Amino acid sequence: MKLNFKQGRGNKIHIHVDGEYKMTVDSDFIAAGGYFENMNISETELAALEDAVSSRRAFNKAVELLSRRDHSKGELLTKLRQKGFSEGAEEAVEKLEEYVYVDDYRFAKMFSGELARLKKYGKSRIKQELYKKGVSRDIIDSVLEEIEFDSESLVSVIEKKYFRNLDSEKGVKKTVNALLRMGYSYSEIKEALNVVKIKLEETDDFID
Q1: What is the architecture of the domain spanning 2-98?
Q2: Fewest C-beta atoms under 10 Å: which of 74, 76, 135, 173?
Q3: Which residues contact 62 (CB under 8 A, 6 or more apart)?
Q4: What is the pLDDT of residues 74-130, one digit of tens each?
Q5: Who contacts 199 (Cβ-Cβ below 8 Å, separation ≥6)?
Q6: Is the model's pTM score more than 0.70?
Q7: Is 10 exposed, middle or buried (0-12, 13-18, 19+ CB in 10 A)?
Q8: Which residues pair with 6 in a beta bridge?
Q9: Domain ranges of the chain
């Protein structure tokens, strides 16, 4: 069997075998692999080439995804498989992990910081969100140990978003449930509500 190449758009190269189209890859792959026009290739070599091309395409797609934002290893694998790169996805992600383009600990620290700073989530909710991204429990636990609970931040959330709820028992319960969903513990919520209560110079506890 003979390999032939046809130039596609940009740096794309269409690979043909005995005149029949087989696959498309970038020109750098052809040069680095030592392939050339009219090169003879066996069935075994063709299978190896197809595997290498699948891995290369998955790698390029992963780089494209990472150029938009950081991803966890599990999240990146899932996205590649969803886009049809089931064959070379794992190898591509492992290679990116070796190059430190993918680092779950770095991702978890960055993502948890954003959730705490921008969405004002508590540790429990942050843990859930990291787990959804495919981050391992060990890394999640390690990152969460470094996050310190900011009671003033929770007080600020209550004052800005739930202040109007605090004039009735029903409203307080609604506020507590909302804050529980945000990942705060009952004790953290109670403490923050009591701080708000003191600020308002009220004598009744919001939570029994």
Answers
A1: Orthogonal Bundle (1.10)
A2: 173
A3: 76, 80, 89, 92, 93, 96
A4: 999 999 999 988 878 998 999 999 999 999 999 999 999 999 999 999 999 999 999
A5: none
A6: yes
A7: exposed
A8: 14
A9: 2-98, 104-145, 151-199
